[in-house]
Amino acid sequence: MRGWILSCVCVALSCAIEAAPPGNPVQALQAYLKPPVDQRKPATEDFRKLTLSLKQAEQITGLLWADHVALLRKERAKEMQAKVIRHGELSMRFEYSVYGDKPKGGRSLYVSMHGGGDAPARVNDGQWENQKRLYRPKEGIYLAPRAPTNTWNLWHQGHIDPMFMRLIENLVALQDVNPNRVYLMGYSAGGDGVYQVAPRMADTLAAAAMMAGHPNETSPVGLRNLPFAIHVGQNDRGFNRNRVAVEWGDQLAALHKADPKGYVHHVQIHAGRGHWMNREDAVAVDWMARHTRNPLPRQIVWRQDDVLHSDFYWLSLPDNQAKAREEIRAKAEWQRIELTGPAGRRVTVNLKDGLVDLEQPVVIMANGKEQYRGRVPRMIGTLLETLKERRDREYLFPARVEVILP
Length: 406
Description:
Helices cover 31% and strands 24% of the residues. It is an alpha/beta fold. The strands form 3 sheets. It has an 8-stranded mixed sheet, sandwiched between helices. Strand 1 and strand 2 form a beta hairpin. Helix 3 runs parallel beside helix 5 and helix 5 packs parallel to helix 12.
């Protein structure tokens, strides 16, 4: 998935930093950013390995992100005007409305998935029209996409994640969305999508709300750091949605009891309601709005679904190394990182000040054995790499260590 997300704009940025005197990398980068992208010369290894102070890392992060946003505003303006996201031969139309005054940190974004599924296009078109008007936040952008297909699993196929990532990236750059206030919600087949996509994209979202859907084979384990709401009618017996909602609530409650700082959730079974909850589920919008993303949680539970991801919070895997249903856990305490997972798996630990103190030595343990001990330098090349890989300012890291789980 990562390969599709990378655009030529970001490739140009990450591969085209002109070598400069090692004395002041900030000034060198400022000089580089003046010419157009296509006139920037390739970086040298010496430049990429320049070490940075905390202040320099912060300054370079700001410069790189500002340049990235400026390029996106230029490259993606027509895409946003057309209100269509494309992935290969598929396209996803979308419509949105803006509510309330824009907060200082940027607008909230609510991505709301319609119902329908394995039906003629006109049926799913009608569901999309309904979803456009179904909810209304007090503040933020309420966006209803039209599923790219008309299949039963229209919202949790492999193309959905990269399409949503690109859509969010566009709105952050062109509509000043706060990347820490992005929410996912959906009704019926859209609720199926929330069950599936939210754990996969938990590191991108601030909260999620599932309405009248079914999880199929997915698991709530990956929701450790993502507040998750469930709304189902008491009499919604189709596909046992009502019974399964209670079971998921029980699973989340058990996970929260074992890990009190994680698995924030809210489950509401609406008395006397069937598949249609008469808009009583709209309370989920205000519930989600109370939550803001923490991009650097101290504890991570990364469980792969059948749609694979190479990055999750401050962990990364080499391309094409993720495996379905595989689970990796991580914990950061002071200067100590602990990883557990499948033996032989290569894992990159991405670091920044705030998660650890990069002025001090870091210890990385994997499956109970020490794999790294020492300082990890902040380098301009690492910031460039993580910008190319993640395209999210919160996930620009100046330092990283790769270890192999024993």
